[in-house]
Amino acid sequence: MSSPLSFQTVARCKATDARVGLLSTPHGRVYTPAFLPVATRASVRGLTPEEATEVGASILLANTYHLYLQPGVDTVRAMGGLHAFMGWSGPMLTDSGGFQAFSMGSLKSVSEEGIRFRSHIDGSEHLFTPESAIGYQERLGADIILCLDECVAYGEEEARVREATERTHRWALRCREAQRSGKQALFGVLQGGVYRNLREESARFFTAQEVDGYAIGGLAVGEPKAEMYEVTRHVCAMLPEGRPRHLLGVGSPEDLVECVARGVDLFDCALPTRIARNGALLTGRGRIDITRARFQKAEGPVEEGCDCYACRNFSSAYLHHLFKAGELLGLRLATIHNLRFVLHLMEEMRHAILRDSFPAFKERFLARYRPTDERLRGEQKEKWLRRRGILGVGEGPGV
Amino acid sequence: MSSPLSFQTVARCKATDARVGLLSTPHGRVYTPAFLPVATRASVRGLTPEEATEVGASILLANTYHLYLQPGVDTVRAMGGLHAFMGWSGPMLTDSGGFQAFSMGSLKSVSEEGIRFRSHIDGSEHLFTPESAIGYQERLGADIILCLDECVAYGEEEARVREATERTHRWALRCREAQRSGKQALFGVLQGGVYRNLREESARFFTAQEVDGYAIGGLAVGEPKAEMYEVTRHVCAMLPEGRPRHLLGVGSPEDLVECVARGVDLFDCALPTRIARNGALLTGRGRIDITRARFQKAEGPVEEGCDCYACRNFSSAYLHHLFKAGELLGLRLATIHNLRFVLHLMEEMRHAILRDSFPAFKERFLARYRPTDERLRGEQKEKWLRRRGILGVGEGPGV
Q1: Which among B41, B46, B332 has the least Cβ separation from residue A325?
Q2: Which domain holds residue A209?
Q3: Are the CB atoms for B307 and B274 separated by under 8 Å?
Q4: Do residue B90 and residue B147 come from a single domain?
Q5: Above 70 in pLDDT, residue A72?
Q6: Interface contact flag, B71 A324, Cβ < 8 Å
Q7: Strands B19-25 and B28-32
Q8: Tell me: the pLDDT tens digits for B304-327?
Q9: Do B254 and B294 belong to one domain?
Q10: Do B79 and A322 make contact, defined as CB atoms within 8 angstroms?
Q11: CB-side exposure of B11: number of CA atoms within 13 Å?
Q12: Contacts with B309 from chain A: Cβ below 8 Å
């Protein structure tokens, strides 16, 4: 089967593993490194497709788990597929639903057959198998689809991670087998936790398969950042040059810069849109909390020089007011600003790599950008994982 | 003082009291009959100023009560006034805050001095006097401002309504006296409940004053529709031709048509945007509930032929999904559709009056449009008024 995807490297950084690539899909081209805004339930968090284009999105990610539960994959198919349903004519990627079955629903059990979980909406029981995960994604109709994988939390023992990694490999073979249409590119999902030997095995396994690209799973699930960066570097170094690499669920500005430097081409993350809803806005110096009293009469935009719709048209004081008053427009403007910030950062990185000045750009960006405190972040992440049942009582990195 | 407003009648219906007028304000012109979308807290319910223009809005209304509490009139003034603050360059009107002090806050007392109320946000105590209501509106800086009035609920005895009407007249004189800037047009607010003699007195009083237009208050507060229409007709007939008439708080499609026929030029109402948030969408045949199962796979737009952004771009099935999934974009699309429906209806009425075919248009529209059941509406309205403390236990039309 010839791939519906083509990927070529356009430029390489001499000092780091950063690279610029051109990904061609049936719905158009994507310059990498690229960030995929999440259109979880076939909508980019309050934005229209035109607005997603305006902030600079060239490819979107939608979640199979959510769309399977609501409105159902058959409804999306009946409406002409995801692109027609949501009015997005550019490239799209769907995940397999596996990660959400862990993180959103109440996970019941993982067996060789698949992942059994309860719906977070009505508690009903469901099963994702490698075959059904592919079938659902074929009905949704994205350009790129993912193999079903088993994700384990940080802190699990090697034997447990090995079990999940090897199952993920067996499932990948079943996924490939289950594919009926040649119009969608299939990405393998690499596992292996923070264990180098398992990561190597997973990279070797998928490199030997006929997959169109590689998604790196099982990271950003509670491990320290330094470890996440190191595993990312290690995995990318083992993957062939000619296919795209997608680091799943990573998207804070500093992580994007660090992981582009380590050879990642594609990213997706709910973070920019999720924090926007709480009034956390991204700037070159770090996050600001627009609800703070100091913005009450702040005449300037959220960030001087930002070309987003919110910064071009409104004062920080107005955004502050909209959040205080609970006005929907506040969420929209914050979402637009944060997505534009991240997508503009990707543009800047592509340009820096093309001009062979990526290391200097990286240094300048990281010197100025103050990340959210890692300890606090770790605690928030753990709370999040625990609330969603990924970590049980007495489990996890903070215990 | 010469008026900052001019109003001229462009065409009159031969069979009804409907008329087309041209209202000129310091921020631009408005063809009447016109509907003012409510930008309660300096934002049209999730829409940008450009979207408000795109749905056909030419003038907006903002609420002094809400802006006084959050972000505060001094903040708005410091940010250059309402227009600059919210990025709307067209005409605007602010109400006096009196009605919201009744309906939103917990009304404490009305005395000759003014209206004492508790904030619905933090319970703090505040006083609106005729003088402060004007001062606040001057700091907000709308093109048209309103006199402070005392509104009473339907079902009150004549003596009580007379008291409120006469106090409203005394307050109007204090409002005129308090005006410092000649740049804003001042509308009187007529009261008198459903009592013809009191309505006549109020019309006579305001006709004798130097006001730039007439707002009709104290209607749509629980009285039967037939009574509301009759009072509206009666009041309009007593007002001079050369000044605009604004019916406060009225805005269901059938009411707009009926009241244009009775001589009203301006309307405002939260209804189109409020019901949109519950998935109630306006169509030529009446409201539909987009969350109903029958829209799950409905391929067509909400209304065939509608030129709004939502109907031009998305299926009913997609809107259904967005509401089911709780996606913000659903609220936006519904708000856009409902505002476009109402603003397009105003356009159609203006064109019909200009072509001298308004009676036929009215008949055709009302024959097709199925209003929400009046009994149900009355009950909803009463519940709403009661919840906000306008009606006490054992009071009101339903008792």
Answers
A1: B41
A2: 6-268
A3: no
A4: yes
A5: yes
A6: yes
A7: antiparallel
A8: 999 999 999 999 999 999 999 999
A9: no
A10: no
A11: 18
A12: 48
B90-105 b/e with 16+ CB inside 10 Å = b?
bbbbbbbbbbbbbbbb
- Name which of B87, B296, B314 is nearest A71 (Cβ-Cβ): B296
- Chain A residue with Cα closest to B50: A313
* A325 CB within 8 Å of a chain B CB: yes
Q: 10-residue block means of pLDDT along chain B (399 residues)? A: 88 98 98 98 96 98 96 97 98 93 78 94 94 98 97 92 98 97 95 97 96 96 94 98 97 97 98 96 98 97 98 98 97 98 98 98 97 70 60 38
Q: Are residues B357 and B246 in the same domain?
A: no
Q: Give yes or no: residues A192 and A68 share one domain.
A: yes
Residue B385 belongs to some domain of the structure = no
- b/e string for A107-146 if b means 16 or more Cβ within 10 A? beebeeebbbbbbbeeeeebebbbbbbbebbbbbbbbbbb
Structure tokens, B247: 């019916």
Task: Tell me phi and psi for residue B182, to 5 degrees.
Answer: -90, 10
The verdict on A202 and A310 lying in the same domain is no
Residue A196 resides in a domain: yes
Q: Is A351 left (phi over 0), alpha (psi -120 to 50) or beta?
A: alpha
- How confident is residue A205, by pLDDT bands cut at 50, 70 and 90? very high
Residue A98 is predicted with a pLDDT of 86
List the Cα angle B74/B77/B78 in 5-degree steps: 85
Under DSSP, is residue B6 helix (H, G, I), strand (E, B) or coil? Answer: strand
Is there a contact between B71 and A309 if contact means CB atoms under 8 Å apart? no
Q: Which two tokens stand for residue B151?
A: 């509104």
Catalytic residue among A95, A143, A149, A255: A95
Q: How many other β-carbons are positioned within 10 Å of the β-carbon of residue B123?
A: 9
State yes or no: is A268 an active-site residue: yes
ipTM rounded to 2 decimals: 0.93
Q: Is A173 left (phi over 0), alpha (psi -120 to 50) or beta?
A: alpha
| Whether residue B268 lies in the annotated active site | yes
> Same domain for A263 and A297?
no
B70–A321 CB contact, under 8 Å: yes
Does some domain include residue A378?
no
Return the CATH number at A108. 3.20.20.105
Task: Tell me which of B95, B143, B255, B265 is the catalytic residue.
Answer: B95
Chain A contact for B48 (CB, 8 A cutoff): yes
**Pairing verdict, β A28-32 and A34-36:** unpaired
A52 and A189, same structural domain? Answer: yes
Look at B317 and A71 and tell me if their CB atoms are within 8 Å.
yes
Count of domains forming chain B: 2
Name the active-site residue from B74, B255, B268, B307. Answer: B268
Q: How far apart are the first and last CA of chain B?
A: 48
CA distance, residue B273 to nearest chain A CA (Å): 12
Q: By C-alpha distance, which of A169, A150, A139 is closest to A62?
A: A139
User: Residue A398: inside a domain, yes or no?
Assistant: no
Q: What is the pLDDT of residues A158-180, one digit of tens each?
A: 999 999 999 999 999 999 999 99
At B58, which amino acid appears?
S
Last residue of a domain, one of A215, A239, A268: A268
Closest Cβ–Cβ partner in B46, B296, B297 for A328: B46
How many CB pairs below 8 Å do chains A and B form together?
116
Q: Please check whether residue A85 touches B, CB under 8 A.
A: yes
Helix ranges (DSSP H) in A151-215:
158-178, 196-207
Amino acid of residue B191:
Q
Strand order in the sheet with B115-118: B106-110, B115-118, B125-128
pTM: 0.93
Unique residue bearing structure tokens 């397009």: B344
> Both B107 and B211 in a single domain?
yes
**CA distances in angstroms from B349 to A340, B24, B243, B345, listed in the order given:** 42, 20, 19, 6
